[in-house]
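Q: Entry one of two.
A:
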Amino acid sequence: MAMLRTTPFHPQWFVAKGKDRRLRHLGRLHGNILDIGCTDKVLARHLPEGCRYLGLDYYATVQNFYSTRPDVYGDACRLPLAGESMDGILIFEVLEHVPDPEAALAEVSRVLKPEGVLLLSVPFIYPVHNAPFDFHRFTRHALERSLRRHGFEVESIESRLLSIEVAGLMTNLALGDAARRIGTSYRWAFPVLIPIGVCVLLVNVTAWVLSFLLPGSDFMPEGYDVVAVRRA
C-alpha cells in the first residue's frame, strides 16, 4: 500500500501530494535546528548545509507507533534544552498530539533564539490518528492568537487543500477504513475490496479535476502550514 501513496489509487493521495510544500521553507534555516516529533528524522536530509540537526520525540509515541530512534527523547511541554539555544524549530503534525499545546508553544519560545524561525504544521479536518494521543484541532485564528501570545510574529498561515479536495480525501479515508475492517474482520467480503479500490481512484481523480474547474475556497482545509519568527 505504501508504494501507491503517491498515486491516485491511495486514499491519502491528496495528503501525500501536499507534503513537499512544507520543505520549501527549510532553506531559510541555519545553525542549530530542533525537530520536535522527528519520527524517522527525514527532514534532516532537506536542511541547508551547515545546519546542526537535533531530532526529539516522545518515548511513548515512538514505542507505540514507530520503529525509529530520535537523537533525544523528550516532552514538548518540558524540552530538555537550554533557553535560546536553537536557531530554528520544526514541529510538523505534532501539536495536536500534545495535551497542553500552550505549554508546548511556551517551551518552543523559551528554547528559540530571538529572530529564530518556527515552522509548524497542524491538521484541521482529519480523522483521529495515533490514538489515544490525539487531542486537538486548530483553526487559523487559534494558531495566530496562541503564537502571538508566546512572542511570535506570524509571517504566514497557509491552508492545505481546497474544500473539494478535502471532501474527496475524507470520502476516501472512509472507504479506506471500510477496506481495513474487511481485511481484518470480514474476510468473506474480500471481493468488495475491488470496487472500493475503483471508487478511491474515481473519487481522487474527480476531486482533482473539480478543484480546477470549481476551486471553491479554503473554508474547510485539511490543515495549516505556519511560518513564525520569535521576537525579542
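Q: Entry two of two.
A:
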Amino acid sequence: MKKHVKRHIVQQPDDPSIRIIPLTKGQNAIVDAADYDWLNQWNWFAAYARKTRTFYAARAVRVEGRPHFMYMHRQVLGLEIEDERQGDHIKNRETLNNRRSNLRIATHAQNMQHSEKGGDGISGMKGVSLIKGRFWRARIKFNNKEIHIGLFGTKQEAYAAYCDTARKLHGKFASV
C-alpha cells in the first residue's frame, strides 16, 4: 500500500511534453510527459546528496528484505539496484531533471569524468591547482591514472590546457 506524504501542489507547465512531480522538502522532479503516469505509481521524495550538494528524486525499496533507495533517474534508464552502471545527468547541476534527453547510462569512470569538482579549492577550476604559490598545474585522471598536463603562469592557461585534454580523453563525458 502506498503511504501518502503531504506534498506541495504544483502547476503543470504549458509545455505538453514535460510534467512535474512534487517531492518532499519543497522540491520538484521534471519528467517527460510519457513517463509521468508510470513514475507517479511510486512515492518519490527529495534525497539530498552532500557530495554534490544537490537533490535527487528517490523512493524506498526492499531488495531481498534489505532497504535501498531507487533513484528516479535510474528508474527512467531501466537500471536495477544491482546494476553497477550509473545514471548520469548530462546537465550536471540539474539532478532533478529526469527527462530522457538529460539522462544517459555511464560507467563509474565516465560519471567521474563528467563531475564538476573544482581543483584544489584555491583555483575553483577542475583539474587546476596551485603549486608552491607560483605555478598553476593542470592534471587529469584517465583510466585510473593521473596525467600531468603541465605547469602554467595563470590558472586560466592551466584550465584551458585541462579542457583541451579532457575533450580529447573523455569525449562527450568531459565536464569543461
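A: Comment on entry two: The first strand starts at residue 18 and ends at 22. The helical segments are 33-39, 72-77, 108-113, 155-170.
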